[in-house]
Design brief:
By secondary structure, the protein is mainly alpha-helical. It has one domain. It contains 4 helices and 2 strands. The protein has a two-stranded antiparallel ribbon. A hairpin with a 2-residue loop joins strand 1 and strand 2. The longest helix is centred in the middle third of the chain and has 30 residues.
Length: 138
């Protein structure tokens, strides 16, 4: 954001700048460290459902955290990259490489949920929450 003061009036303008490769790498490292936290939590949990097939509070909290911190943020970065590609702020080849890297990350997150052995329940829960991202898709 760029701010200019004109007397008592403050004017804000969004600056559309692309991330450098170093900034993008740092972001991916942050995503990876969050994924490791989630994997540690998954390994500590024996199950995320009760005998009746209902999510436990701890399991629900874990899935919500994974959804918001890993999946949703990844999709927001992907949306931003597509927008920067539309504005020609980044070369198309760089955007494609970054999108592939984020896709690989999301795939690895989903594979890390395999030890919970509740694929159908997890996918259903994530699909119910992805409708929030629909307006942001380009």
């Amino acid at each position: 954001m760029d701010m200019k003061t004109d007397g008592y009036v403050k004017r804000y303008k969004r600056l559309d700048k692309a991330q450098s490769q170093k900034q993008f790498d740092h972001l991916i490292e942050l995503f990876e460290s969050n994924k490791l936290i989630a994997i540690d939590e998954i390994n500590e949990m024996k199950t995320i459902v009760t005998k009746k097939g209902i999510l436990t509070k701890r399991g629900e909290a874990l899935l919500d955290w994974i959804q918001s911190e890993l999946i949703d943020r990844s999709f927001m970065v992907m949306t931003r990259l597509k927008y920067q590609d539309t504005l020609k702020l980044l070369p198309h080849s760089v955007v494609n490489k970054r999108l592939q890297r984020i896709d690989q990350f999301v795939d690895s997150v989903m594979k890390s949920l395999a030890p919970l052995k509740q694929e159908k329940l997890i996918l259903e829960r994530f699909q119910n929450h992805t409708h929030k991202l629909e307006p942001f898709k380009i």
